[in-house]
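Record format v2
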Amino acid sequence: MTMQQEIDDPRLLAWAYLSKVVQGPCAPLTELIEKVGPQEAARAVRERDLSEYLGERTVARAHVDSAVEDLRALSEMGGRLVTPDDDEWPRWRMLAFDGLGHSRADGPPLALWVVGSRSLGELTERSISVVGTRAASGYGEHVTAEIAGDLALDGWTIVSGAAFGIDGAAHRAALGVGGLTIAVLACGVDRAYPAGHARLLRQISQNGLVVSEYPPGTTPAKHRFLARNRLVAALSDGVVVVEAGWRSGARNTATWGRRMSRPVMAVPGPVTSASSAGCNRMIREGEARLVARAVDVVEEAGPIGLADTEDDTVARDTDSLDGNALLVHEALPTRGFRSVPEVSVESGVPIAIVRSMLAQLELDGFAVPCQDGWMRSR
Amino acid sequence: MTMQQEIDDPRLLAWAYLSKVVQGPCAPLTELIEKVGPQEAARAVRERDLSEYLGERTVARAHVDSAVEDLRALSEMGGRLVTPDDDEWPRWRMLAFDGLGHSRADGPPLALWVVGSRSLGELTERSISVVGTRAASGYGEHVTAEIAGDLALDGWTIVSGAAFGIDGAAHRAALGVGGLTIAVLACGVDRAYPAGHARLLRQISQNGLVVSEYPPGTTPAKHRFLARNRLVAALSDGVVVVEAGWRSGARNTATWGRRMSRPVMAVPGPVTSASSAGCNRMIREGEARLVARAVDVVEEAGPIGLADTEDDTVARDTDSLDGNALLVHEALPTRGFRSVPEVSVESGVPIAIVRSMLAQLELDGFAVPCQDGWMRSR
């Protein structure tokens, strides 16, 4: 599924050039591109044929054109530049920005530098941001694992910022259940930040996506973290803060979520714990709704999946399954597929029985055959 | 201050008789008494000269008249029967019942059997209920001690139900800071229930009040706990639930509080703790507002005291005090008084300096002399 983009595509080179020039959101440039296309916009930037605001906003780096090198660096990592030209551009997610103002920080991303083979559009169709403090407690990490893991199992993509603490726990929980996750970075996707998460970021890019609106080589900076937080909120159906201080990046993400009309949720914690002070206060002040578990999140964020289920148990139609049918169904992945021998190994059910169970599961609407194997029906 | 009531007062005997006959709220009887007085109402009950409803409601015990014995038992404990005839009847608290229906459980108490020398009216002027599960966690007991202790220090009476767990911790916290507390029982005030709290109840009656709407000898029963919960809510400016299950007595108290337009508050806790499940869910469902500390409670329950103060610090006029003046002021009790030598011992400030500091504190409006010593000005 990797799209090895042509580095001599002049349109793509224009996007890459412009992304490097503005390094972050720039609503007037986005508008200009919508009007005249990326190549004409790039010409206007190069030749300083711009409105006063855009002139000022682009002057510092208009002369820098490393588009070929940036795209090559990305390509060598197996990445691609996703732009509004692409089918996988998460177009409807970008509607979130329509309600915002046009300040320097408020615009949609011009384009997104992406590593990972999945489609950005598909992965952000049903997604939840799970964010929080770097100084997570054992409680916070535990609850993050529970909630993010259950959401990922239910087919929600977990979006977070790859930071230490809650962010990392959220990504790991999704990976741990074979779910999907997106890391949105405040630096180039070629940078492992934090360095201690280099391996985690590699795993995320293999099973999900690592995304940035900054070209390769960009270093993390305070304003980029704030802009990144707005992307985390934009790319999801709701923001869950698990543990956070009152003045925290996670609360900033929550604020973006509220501005974008995303449901904002927080997990309560002991009033004696500094790590929970921000969450408790957000709940108290009405900035966030209290959530204790994945079903609470789904209740806020969307009517699909867990939402209609009962209290403590995740009751699905599959409750009717038992014995080998259940084992085989459980062995089918929510995303992707498994071959019959793989299902057999995973479920511990002999291949011949797996085949007959799969046939029955297909009839009952629980399993779907695909080219190379079987998947769960959604 | 103990009011040794006359056991041959026919009006009081009528109240005691009627209280024993109905054992709990009976709005139609309260109305009848308001109309014709307790003696005529007692005659009507004795002679079965009643409406159909009141006839049924009183028939089981109309022939039982242990008023003299009950009042004597109470008197021997240093108690008294407080009725709407008395100045200390918490008249405005009873307005809470005006908004409720007239079902069997909804009425105001007919009269209250009280042990303790304080005035019931005064003690319920500024009061907060702090309630919760018997199966309290260490966290719950700790937070109860913090919140109830701070509220009591600030002059709020802590009202609770004397049960094990959160209730007991709330009473103890108030006693521990030399504050005021009221235990409302679901049995006669002569009964120590739970037995393990016999000593605590004695301490409460010495420093606060033990109150019941049931005559001496009444045993605890399920419906009396529910009726007791309504009294706890009625006698306070707000209900704080520290830890509770979803179906719990504490949540019942909170429900009464809401019906009586009292602010209802809950302390959040770990989503992994069963003891906090009810509180977290009450907050989530909008049944209670999240509170983390005493100032949050005061913000909900009343504009006096801590409410206008800043975040973490209790800023009062006394912030202007320092050195010996502060030590001496801190050594003055909020209720009651201390002699100059006692203040000296408590503050560690020599007697001569205590005297001059007290004079200055009096001039500045921080201390008030009384017959046997000094107290803080309110």
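The longest helix of chain B spans residues 27-46.
The first strand of chain B starts at residue 79 and ends at 82.
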